[in-house]
Specification:
The chain is an alpha/beta fold. The chain has one domain (2-33, 40-273). It has 8 helices and 7 strands. The chain has a 7-stranded mixed sheet, with helices on both faces. Helix 7 packs parallel to helix 8 (242-273). The longest helix is centred in the last third of the chain and has 32 residues, at 242-273. The radius of gyration is 18 Å and the shape is globular. The termini are far apart. This is DUF7924 domain-containing protein. Residues 57-271 form the DUF7924 domain. Pfam families: DUF7924 (PF25545). It comes from Lasiosphaeria miniovina.
């Protein structure tokens, strides 16, 4: 699948030791920054380790999702104005497709996908929503990444269960590659429209996580030369290690903060120009 369906549609999974482009590397400094907000207490961490021990005795993907929703990924009320539909097919027009390749990228359906609400005055003003309809000459709904209208997604999560029957982290990483490329294409079209106004482009980056009840792998993705999509692992966390678990939780919260603050502001400013 990586050699045919991904690479022949210009999606490449980089070695984790490969040097990152400067703009990508500098962004990782933000994700790795320490947080002022209180983390998990020692009692909460003990509960986490106990829960992981139970999962190790046998679990399925739903068990892993329930556990991580309670401990790592905040609920939607805490992430407004962001939206996070679960298991939503991403729009086909955002999925990379090389016309000369006989192979196709499977339409992404990440287990969790963070982006922005398309409801009026949730993440975007009415004029900003109207501007989105003008970004693509033939597809007025181009910025809608799912049938629910999720806009400009930036963070996809693929859950697996270690020892389960629904696949492993290799499969999850392949799924992340397709989902992140679709995320990049949404902002790429915005930047294409911005060039007509000689305005500064929006940094086009997306994050993905492939995770089971043992390990979380964090990936960042970017696009080069308007053609090639790259996905690279930038961190891995052993969930049973309290230090790793806390760091992983901080990384996730920092990515979400970037999404609902700096990134959303930049996209809104770009839409105001258009």
């Amino acid at each position: 699948y990586r050699q045919n369906n991904l690479a022949l549609n210009n999606i490449y999974i980089q070695p984790s030791a490969a040097p990152l482009p400067d703009v990508v590397s500098s962004h990782m400094d933000t994700v790795r920054a320490k947080r002022d907000s209180p983390g998990l207490s020692s009692d909460e961490m003990n509960q986490v380790v106990g829960h992981l021990d139970l999962l190790a005795e046998g679990c399925d993907e739903d068990d892993v999702v329930t556990f991580l929703n309670d401990t790592i990924f905040p609920n939607s009320k805490l992430t407004r104005p962001m939206d996070l539909p679960s298991s939503a097919l991403m729009s086909q027009h955002l999925v990379p497709s090389n016309p000369v390749s006989p192979y196709r990228v499977t339409q992404p359906e990440p287990d969790r996908l963070y982006g922005y609400s398309g409801n009026p005055n949730a993440a975007f003003t009415q004029p900003q929503l109207l501007a989105q309809a003008t970004l693509h000459p033939k597809i007025p709904h181009h910025s809608a990444a799912t049938s629910q209208g999720l806009r400009f997604p930036f963070f996809a999560i693929e859950f697996k269960a270690a020892g389960g029957t629904r696949g492993d982290l290799w499969v999850a990483t392949n799924q992340c590659a397709g989902a992140s490329a679709a995320c990049l294409n949404a902002v790429e079209q915005l930047n294409t429209s911005l060039r007509e106004y000689s305005a500064q482009s929006v940094d086009n980056l997306a994050y993905c996580i492939a995770i089971d009840n043992n390990v979380a792998q964090l990936y960042i993705s970017w696009k080069e030369g308007n053609l090639n999509y790259y996905l690279q692992r930038v961190d891995a966390f052993l969930l049973s290690s309290p230090e790793h678990f806390k760091n992983f939780r901080n990384h996730v919260r920092n990515i979400l903060d970037w999404g609902k603050d700096g990134r959303l502001t930049r996209i809104g400013d770009a839409l105001d120009i258009i």
